[in-house]
Amino acid sequence: MTIKPVIEQDLCIGDGICETICPEVFEIRDDGLAYVINQNPSSDLTSAIREAIEACPTECIRLEEDE
Ligand code: SF4
């Protein structure tokens, strides 16, 4: 099973918390929004991704889980 993080950018306020917690997967770009830079993160990043999801103030990161 792969876990793919998705950002609902309409809700992103660009505070960069996700990037601070997991820079391997999240990046703030010049437009002030967070982007997913790793569409297929390895399993050792799962806990950091989940931590970023918990910490996001607008709850705009979710996981899509594919079999
Ligand atoms: S933590 Fe959430 S609101 Fe903050 S930059 Fe990341 S996606 Fe956007």
General description of the model:
By secondary structure, the protein is α+β, with helices and mostly antiparallel strands. It has a single domain (2-66), classed as Alpha-Beta Plaits (2-Layer Sandwich). It has helices at 17-21, 46-55, and strands spanning 2-7, 26-28, 34-36, 61-66. The strands form 2 sheets. The protein has a two-stranded antiparallel sheet.
Q: H/E element string?
A: EHEEHE
Radius of gyration: 11 Å
Number of strands: 4
Count the helices. How many? 2
Q: What fraction strand?
A: 25-35%
Structural shape: globular
CATH topology: Alpha-Beta Plaits
Helix content: 10-25%
Order of strands across the biggest sheet?
1-4
The CATH architecture designation is 2-Layer Sandwich
Number of domains: 1
Output the structural class.
alpha+beta
Q: What's the story with the biggest beta sheet?
A: 2 strands, antiparallel
CATH class: Alpha Beta
Compute the separation of the termini in Å.
5 Å
Task: Give the cofactors and ligands.
Answer: iron/sulfur cluster
| Spans where pLDDT lies below 50 across 5 or more residues | none
Give the gist of this structure.
The protein is built from two helices and four strands. With 67 residues, the chain is of the alpha+beta class.
List the helices and strands and how they pair.
Elements: E1 2-7, H1 17-21, E2 26-28, E3 34-36, H2 46-55, E4 61-66
The chain binds iron/sulfur cluster.
Keywords:
67 residues, alpha+beta, Alpha-Beta Plaits, two-stranded antiparallel sheet, 27% strand
